[in-house]
Amino acid sequence: MDADRKIIDPDLTPLNESKLSRESWKIFQIMAEFVEGFERLAKISPSVSIFGSARTKKDNPYYKLAEDIANELSNAGFSVVSGGGPGIMEAANKGAFEGKSPSVGLNIQLPNEQSGNGYQDINLTFRHFFSRKVMFVKYASAYVVLPGGFGTLDELAEILTLVQTGKSRRIPIILVVSSFWSKLVDWFQTTLVDEGTISPEDMDLITILDDPKEVVNAIFEHYAGRNFELSIEEQKTMLEL
Fold this sequence. Notes:
The chain has eight helices and seven strands. With 241 residues, the chain is an alpha/beta fold. The protein has a domain at 42-105 and 140-180 and 206-226: Rossmann fold. It has a seven-stranded parallel beta sheet with strand order 4-3-2-1-5-6-7, with helices on both faces. Strand 6, helix 6 (178-195) and strand 7 form a beta-alpha-beta unit. The chain starts with 13 loop residues before the first helix and ends with a helix.
């Protein structure tokens, strides 16, 4: 055996044992988040998850756009799911709250920025981003992504990866405000596709639109000839999400 190779002592110190115990019990907290999410969201289908910046002010045109999109979706029969916080999330919940279908907020405990908005028919609060992210995907019939920052890009990359790799069913992924997203999508095409890090057909996963009614129509067009319920194969896929 190499003399320089490190050998980890299997005997844990009392401090490490205490840390391991805390981390082991954390599993039950994580399980509780999943169980509550599954139980409370299982009946919201069909639903659309809407994302965007928490920093968008009410006088920003993007706020009104998100509100209008959510209202159109709600009146068309879709539950609307947002992150439950301020900005675009609030606008989405507000538009849905004033519509016919449930407004859902998946809140997250954060040291900064996040505070729940008052337009939620159903609200859940998560400590862990990963369990919250599963809830955004699991019951979504579509993703609608408005201008946002790192968190919004994270959610966009998450759904693109899940659909691309077949870990999630194929759903519409709609980027709203073409002037905001066009340079990023151009970079996908001219760099990622050209460098071979994604396939040309991966670009078909993305649709860019600007009008609320176009967003609703695009979702209905995607499901033309079938209903919004998951097929048997899709159910199997989503069980492995």
